[in-house]
Specification:
The protein has 221 residues and is of the alpha/beta class. It has eleven helices and six strands. The chain has two domains: 136 residues, Rossmann fold, CATH 3.40.50.2300; 66 residues, Arc Repressor Mutant, subunit A (Orthogonal Bundle). The protein has a six-stranded parallel β-sheet, with helices on both faces. α9 crosses α10. The longest helix is centred in the middle third of the chain and has 16 residues.
Length: 221
C-alpha cells in the first residue's frame, strides 16, 4: 500500500531590519505546514536572495534602510510572479497602502496583528486570499472609488501623484541640483538606490532625462 502524499509546506521569507521582529514573526508562524526559508535585513539583500529562494509568501516591512519596502515590491513582483507578497509594517499611511498594492503586493498587515491572525493571513495569502484586515480593506476600496471619480487637472499632475514619498524626496533634491552621491548622503541611502529611484521617476513621469524630471517638479511647485 502506498503512503498518502504529504502536502508541501508553505515556504515563507521575511524582510525586516529588526532581528527581534524577525524572531517574533518566525515564532508566530511556526507550524507543521509552514517553513521559514529565508530572512533579509535590507531590500538590497532581499533582491539578491529572494529570486533564488522563490518563496510562496514574502513578508516585507516598508521602513527599511536604503531602498524601502514598496520599491522592493516593485522590483521583485515581476521577477517572482508566483510569490504572494504581503506588507507587514507599522505604517497605516494611505500612500504606503496604495503604493504597495499598486506595486504588486496582495496584502497589507500591521504589526499589531496577533500571532494567530498572522498565521491565518499567511495561509490565506498562499491560497490567494486578500491578506488584510477588514478596516484596511474597506479603506482601500473607498480610496479606489474616490480615485476613480477624481479627474486630475492635467496628465502631468496624475503622473506626479504616482510617485512614492521617497521618490518625491529624490526628485526634490534633483530639482535642487544635487548629484546622486549628494542625494544618497542626504537620505542616508546608497547611490545605487538613488539611481533605482531616479529610473522609476523617469518612467512614471514619462520623461527622457533628469533635467526634464527636475523641470517638471519645479513647474509644479
Amino acid at each position: 500500500m502506498t503512503e498518502p502524499r504529504q502536502q508541501a509546506r508553505i515556504r515563507v521569507m521575511l524582510v525586516d531590519d529588526h532581528a527581534l521582529v524577525r524572531a517574533a514573526v518566525t515564532q508566530a508562524i511556526t507550524a507543521p505546514d509552514i517553513e521559514m526559508v529565508g530572512e533579509a535585513a535590507t531590500a538590497e539583500e532581499a533582491l539578491r536572495i529572494a529570486p533564488s529562494l522563490r518563496p510562496d509568501v514574502l513578508l516585507v516591512d516598508i521602513d527599511l534602510p536604503g531602498m524601502d519596502g514598496v520599491q522592493l515590491v516593485r522590483e521583485l513582483a515581476p521577477r517572482l510572479p508566483e510569490t504572494r507578497i504581503v506588507m507587514l509594517t507599522i505604517s497605516t499611511s494611505d500612500r504606503h497602502l496604495m503604493d504597495a498594492m499598486r506595486s504588486g503586493a496582495i496584502g497589507y498587515l500591521t504589526k499589531d496583528i496577533t500571532p494567530d491572525a498572522l498565521l491565518r493571513a499567511v495561509r490565506g495569502a498562499h491560497a490567494g486570499d486578500l491578506a488584510m484586515d477588514q478596516r484596511l480593506a474597506a479603506h482601500l476600496i473607498r480610496r479606489l472609488v474616490e480615485k476613480s471619480r477624481h479627474v486630475p487637472a492635467s496628465g502631468e499632475e496624475a503622473e506626479m501623484s504616482e510617485l512614492s514619498d521617497r521618490e518625491e524626496e529624490v526628485l526634490r533634491y534633483l530639482a535642487d541640483g544635487l548629484t546622486d552621491r549628494e542625494i544618497a548622503a542626504a537620505l542616508t541611502i546608497s547611490p545605487r538606490t538613488v539611481g533605482t529611484h531616479v529610473s522609476s521617476i523617469l518612467h512614471k513621469l514619462g520623461v527622457r532625462n533628469r533635467a526634464e524630471a527636475a523641470r517638471r517638479y519645479r513647474d509644479r511647485s
